[in-house]
Every structure is written in structure tokens, then in C-alpha cells.
Write a structure and sequence with these properties.
Number of domains: 2
Largest sheet: 6 strands, parallel
CATH class of the largest domain: Alpha Beta
Radius of gyration: 18 Å
CATH topology of the largest domain: Rossmann fold
Order of helices and strands: EEHEHEHEHEHHHHH
Distance between the termini: 42 Å
């Protein structure tokens, strides 16, 4: 099965050089350029390291290029990035340093429509899903307090009003808000509100 790929890493990667049946159409160092390059090349798979501003790029690719499967290949597997990527719509998540054989296998699998998660990633997902007291929700990477604040932000409450309701200082609410935006991979309240509404956390 021949597979075309676009890579988005901060540095050049030679793991796929010369691999039979895998064609690298482009390498895109900057995440902000990924969606445009994917639309131009129309690859079967985008392999991306979302460690900086990659989550918005993933969401845009999933939205605008549904024919391209997204595979995360990163050294970062902490919850904020992992669950942010899952929410964004990735089809696979593989941790470095996976072998070139594992990477190629994952690329072929997501291109064929399968979901692929490395062992450590699969274990973490399972832990979250089966943890005692775990609550199903659209944003598992957020704490209970952050879920509350996101809901209030999305309903249009000002920071001062949120602070009063939760018996917090406005500064604490703003700090929580900044953390929420980072975990969701957005830059402002408006974008976070859009995600919350799309996820059904509040009414549209």
C-alpha cells in the first residue's frame, strides 16, 4: 500500500527516507503552515509533533482536510498534549523514540482507517477512563475547577462574576483561564467558547 505523507517537526527527520511505499511530499517546520501545505499536497497522512502550537493546526487539518489522517509522533505524552490531540481528532499517537518500523506501521495503519496508540499512550488513556471517580466529559485534560470556569466563561460571565461565584480572586480566575487556553490549544476566550459549545458543554 503506497502512502503519501506530510511531516511537521521542528527539525528535519530522516526516519522515512527511502522507505518503500511511503512518499514524503513535504516537511513543514512551522505548525502555522501545516494546514495550508496539507491542502496543497493532499497527503494520506500528516505526521506532526504538536509540542508548541500544533493543536490548532491539527484541528484545522481535521476540519479542512478530512481525507488526511493525523498521526502524532512526539516525545511529549503528558495529559495536556495527549488529550488535547485526541480532542482535536488525531487518529494515532506514538511516542519517540519509536523505531522506524513502528512509525511506518503506524502510518500505514492510520492511512487505512485504523486508530493507533503506542503502549504507554494506550495505558494512560485506559487509566483515565477506568480511574475511580473519573467523570466522562468533553475535556478530560481539565481539572474539575477548570471545567467549571470554562463553562462559566463560555456562558459569557465576566471574570469578576466568576470569581464571586467560586469564591476566588479575579487574578486566580485569570490564571485558571490561561491554563485552560493552553490545555485546549487556543489563544483566547472566544476560541475556548467555540470548543465548549461544539463539545456540548454549553448551549450554542
Amino acid at each position: 500500500m503506497a502512502v503519501s505523507v506530510v511531516l511537521s517537526y521542528a527539525h528535519r527527520d530522516e526516519r522515512l527516507a527511502g522507505v518503500d511505499g511511503v512518499t514524503v511530499l513535504a516537511e513543514v517546520p512551522a505548525a502555522r503552515d501545516v494546514a495550508g501545505e496539507v491542502r496543497r499536497c493532499r497527503p494520506d497522512v500528516l505526521v506532526i509533533d504538536p509540542r508548541s502550537d500544533g493543536l490548532p493546526a491539527i484541528r484545522e487539518v481535521v476540519r479542512s482536510s478530512p481525507g488526511t489522517a493525523v498521526l502524532v509522533f512526539s516525545e511529549y505524552g503528558h495529559d495536556e498534549v495527549l488529550f488535547g490531540a485526541l480532542r482535536a481528532g488525531v487518529r494515532g499517537y506514538l511516542l519517540k523514540p519509536a523505531s522506524p518500523v513502528d512509525l511506518v506501521r503506524a502510518i500505514r495503519s492510520v492511512a487505512a482507517g485504523s486508530a493507533v496508540f503506542g503502549g504507554d499512550i494506550a495505558r494512560r488513556i485506559t487509566e483515565v477512563l477506568v480511574a475511580p471517580g473519573a467523570r466522562p466529559g468533553p475535556f478530560p485534560q481539565l481539572t474539575v475547577r477548570q471545567q467549571e470556569i470554562l463553562t462559566m466563561l463560555a456562558t459569557g460571565l465576566p471574570v469578576a462574576a466568576i470569581a464571586v461565584r467560586l469564591h476566588l480572586t479575579p487574578k486566580t480566575v485569570r490564571n485558571h483561564s490561561s491554563s485552560i487556553f493552553t490545555k485546549l490549544g487556543v489563544s483566547d476566550r472566544e476560541s475556548a467558547t467555540t470548543l465548549a459549545r461544539e463539545a456540548g458543554l454549553v448551549g450554542r
